[in-house]
Automatic annotation (TrEMBL):
Species lineage: Bacteria, Thermotogati, Synergistota, Synergistia, Synergistales
A family per Pfam: RimK
Tree of life domain: Bacteria
UniProt-recorded name of the protein: Lysine biosynthesis enzyme LysX
Similarity section: Belongs to the RimK family. LysX subfamily.
Alphabetized UniProt keyword annotations: Amino-acid biosynthesis, ATP-binding, Ligase, Magnesium, Metal-binding, Nucleotide-binding
CC annotations in GO: cytoplasm
UniProt xrefs under Gene3D superfamilies: 3.40.50.20, ATP-grasp fold, A domain, ATP-grasp fold, B domain
Listed InterPro entries: ATP-grasp, ATP-grasp_RimK-type, ATP_grasp_subdomain_1, LysX/ArgX_preATP_grasp, LysX_arch, PreATP-grasp_dom_sf, Rp_bS6_RimK/Lys_biosynth_LsyX
Domain ATP-grasp residue range list: 91-274
GO terms, molecular function: ATP binding; coenzyme F420-2 alpha-glutamyl ligase activity; metal ion binding
Length: 285
């Protein structure tokens, strides 16, 4: 019989919610901390389903790859983790699918960056291609600041050698964080802040946001373009419609839980994983 596992590096609020949700539904879930184990191992077998909940992308990716080699279904799959962990890969996938997003470009030198921003226009936001929690972002308003930031980035090593440039969008003090579980959008929140970075990890306040038909359609398009069974999509609301800012493949969701949205996100995650495990069993007959 297929099982559901949850692997984690630190027991955060989200992992505790998943464990409690499984208990409440009497869904067998085995939660295991990864730090004392070596991979691959005999914990999971073919047909099992694994929630990969490590904090770091590198650990999650290594975990998913070793599990997938044994036929285990991982949430999310390693290819989706790779797309979501890299803003250049994410933007490229969104572009291919024709999904609206802020203007962006990639440069490989100071000269290239200057030419790009002259054409794009100030202000712009420079982001590390790989990063989370709103860290190492820089809103750049003029040429002097751009030169300084890019010079720093180019001396920080290979991880910063590709400069990801995004046109700054005035989001009127908030953005939207929407959660997709399985193939369906389940909740959305406004993340409000007086600062231009509105991540809740940086102090943004969470408020419920309605899942309109327009927003649902956009989110379904994102899920089809990116893949995966658990996504958090960051969206800007503008006068010309919604713009997709980023897609997270290993989301924290404490701010999207019932007390804000009325939706039991942890419960829906557990139910989705258990449904996948049961389907895996049925396909063996």
């Amino acid at each position: 019989m297929a099982k559901v596992f949850m692997f984690y590096s630190r027991l955060r609020a989200e992992e505790k919610m998943i464990i409690e949700a499984a208990k409440a539904r009497e869904i067998p879930l085995e939660s295991i901390v990864v730090s004392d184990l070596v991979w691959p191992n005999d914990i999971c077998q073919r047909k099992d389903v694994a929630l990969c909940r490590c904090i770091g992308h590198r650990q999650n990716l290594a975990l998913a790859l070793t599990l997938e080699a044994k036929g285990v279904t991982t949430i999310n799959p390693s290819n989706v983790m790779n797309i979501c962990s890299d803003k250049i890969a994410t933007s490229s996938k969104l572009s291919i699918a024709g999904i609206p997003q802020p203007d962006y470009a990639v440069a490989f030198s100071l000269e290239g960056t200057l030419k790009c921003v002259e054409k794009m226009g100030y202000p712009v936001v420079l982001k590390p291609p790989v990063g989370s929690w709103g860290r190492l972002l820089a809103k750049v308003n003029d040429k002097d600041a751009l030169e300084a930031v890019v010079e720093h980035k180019l001396h920080l090593g290979s991880q910063h050698s590709a400069i990801y440039i995004q046109k700054y969008v005035d989001k009127n003090g908030f953005d939207i964080r929407a959660t997709i579980i399985g193939d369906s959008p389940v909740s959305a929140i406004r993340r409000c802040s007086n600062h231009w970075i509105t991540n809740t990890a940086r102090g943004g306040e969470a408020q419920n946001y309605p899942l309109t038909d327009e927003l649902k359609k956009l989110l379904v398009d994102v899920q089809r373009a990116i893949g995966g069974k658990l996504l958090a999509v960051d969206v800007f609301e503008t006068h010309n419609g919604y713009l997709v800012n980023e897609v997270n493949g290993q989301p924290e969701f404490r701010s999207s839980q019932e007390r804000i949205t009325g939706v039991d996100v942890a419960g829906k995650i557990v139910e989705m994983a258990w449904t996948l495990a049961q389907k895996s069993d049925e396909n063996d007959f």
